[in-house]
Amino acid sequence: MTHGGARTREVVTPDGVPLRFAIALAGDRAGAFLLDYLLVHAAVLVAVLAIFLLVGWAAGADLALATALLAFFLVRTFYFTFFELTWQGQTPGKRKLGIRVIDARGGPLTAEAIITRNLTREVEVFLPMTALAGPDLVYPGAPAGVAIAALGWMLLFGLLPLFNRDRLRVGDLVAGTIVVRAPDARLLDDLVAAPASPAAEGLAFTREQLDVYGEYELHVLEGLLRDGPAARPDAMAAVAAQIREKIGWEAPAPDDRAFLRAYYAALRGRLERRLLLGRRRAHKLDRS
User: Fold this and answer.
1) pLDDT value of residue 280
2) Which of 9, 141, 200, 239 matches a 20 to 30 Å C-alpha distance to 262?
3) pTM for the whole thing?
């Protein structure tokens, strides 16, 4: 499916809410990876220079080389996983290019999925890259054909996203993830700052009603409200009815969009205040 010139993918959340996302372009994914790769190398370079400064250039050459190899492995292993875990599916490169990782089934992005998709990168990219740069680094006495095989391996996996509709690499297929264009946060700020409709005026939610949901549900509401007032009224009606039931809303209900926008603004404010107090609630199942 395409929308506005971009290929889109609809996912259904565990609550039955359909959300539509624009698939990240292959060029955006490649550009984000290149930026992240350069940052990884910059971190390794800092580690090597630190060794040289500590033990001296002549005495530290072998140590620096060993440190570089170890640092490159550790940084590349934990860099992508760390940022995608803490930045909600984004790395510095992905954030710069405006893309992010989400769960392909519409649920919260789990740590297991993030770790899995990034561990497979070793097999997809870094192992064949090492073999291409120096077959002896893979194992001593490796024949020259190893480099040719590594090049073919990299091309096979590197071009895979071009041959499936969702631009998935092997890590995405294994982990059940998909990379999409990140929504424009300015629109969401406008939703909060815009004057409330007459139907939504006077709506107030208690702390207990807001604590029913968490950060994941906030993102579901973002996706629903982002499409505009006329988009998917059936989905808005279903979500509004579910929220009213979950929070025990008994007051007269305004129109669904006005109710959802008011609840979104209140929930966002509640979560931001919780973060200021050092507490983070990822989703409704997190009772911490």
Assistant:
1) 45
2) 9
3) 0.65
